[in-house]
Amino acid sequence: MKKTLISLAVLGAVSGVAHAQSSVTIYGIVDAGLVSERGGKAGNVTKVTSGVGSASRIGFRGTEDLGGGLSAVFTLEGGFAADTGVGDAAGLFQRQSFVGLVSKDAGALTLGRQYSPLYNALSQVADPFGAGLAGSAKNLFAASGGNVRYSNAVNYKSPALNGFAVELQYGLGEQSQAKAGRQLGAGLSYENGPLKARLAYNNRNNNTVGAAPVGIGHNTLFAANYDFGKVKAFFAYEDDKGALSSAIPNPTAYTAAAVASSKDSDTTLVGLTAPVGANGTVIASYIHKDDNEAANRDADQWALGYSYALSKRTSTYVAYAKIKNKRGASYTVGNNSEVGTGDKAFNLGIKHTF
């Protein structure tokens, strides 16, 4: 009996250690706001929308310490509409779904559906609006559809060395022709004190076996921000070439016929954030889309916003943005979750993270 009790005590101790080495975190964002859009062909629209500043989501993130500086990790993340309670029609964990290994010395290798290096550079470094609200850089930068996330992807991130890190990503097209549908991504990042900079590349084969060829899109983005203390400055420049490489104009916003996206364009952003008091932040940006094709359908976007932190996890926001389209361009002012319907938009909402 005594030996049995000792054995159970040892097993309980070992079990406790194993449990301490593993963890699963439930996290998420609930974001809803009032959105007013003006200037579209369908008329003025006012609505309550989910994910205006940051897409509403719920996720599960886990890690297990395997010893020797090696850990197993996973992330499962799905979106939902806070205004209706409806889950995303694209799938249960369509935002992120991957598993992998992380080594302190060798870096991280993950497999599944993951963000592209291009989108991470735009949303995390370049855009003072964080790719959300009416002033989202996604309105004019090539950050939609498959350029945001890769499915069937193998991703590698190196450890940081003297502030530098490398990311490589390959998304298999999983078709009978190996190149059809495949995506390639690469990123080089540098962080040193107040400076953050990234250079990202995206290569997307839009062809489908058995269908008419569409072509390949190429995107190269340089993004940087610098924290001066009282003001943080943002800059981005992107070169887009090839099929579906550019931000796609809303085909029904201003014209009866669809307006194709440019296959050769450059986009530049300058912006800033500045603290106001202990809890407030002013956000501003200007973006210019330079269409290099013969039609020369350029566009300019001005945006201004304000965020106020009610606590560490809850904030309110207000934002306004306006796009000026030129020579038939039909870009619209959207937000984090939806494509806009007009050339002007106003947001007012609240975001809670958990």
UniProtKB/TrEMBL annotation:
GO terms for biological process: monoatomic ion transmembrane transport. Residues 8-327 form the Porin domain. It is found in: Cell outer membrane. GO terms for molecular function: porin activity. The lineage of its organism: Bacteria, Pseudomonadati, Pseudomonadota, Betaproteobacteria, Burkholderiales. Residues 1-20 form the signal peptide. It holds the Pfam family Porin_4. Keywords: Cell outer membrane, Ion transport, Membrane, Porin, Signal, Transmembrane, Transmembrane beta strand, Transport. GO terms for cellular component: cell outer membrane; pore complex. Gene3D superfamilies: Porin (2.40.160.10). PANTHER family: MAJOR OUTER MEMBRANE PROTEIN P.IA (PTHR34501:SF9), PROTEIN YDDL-RELATED (PTHR34501). InterPro entries: Gram-neg_bact_OMP (IPR050298), Gram_neg_porin_domain (IPR033900), Porin_dom_sf (IPR023614), Porin_Gram-ve (IPR001702), Porin_Neis (IPR002299). This is Porin. Transmembrane segments: none annotated. Homotrimer. Its main location: membrane. It is a multi-pass membrane protein.
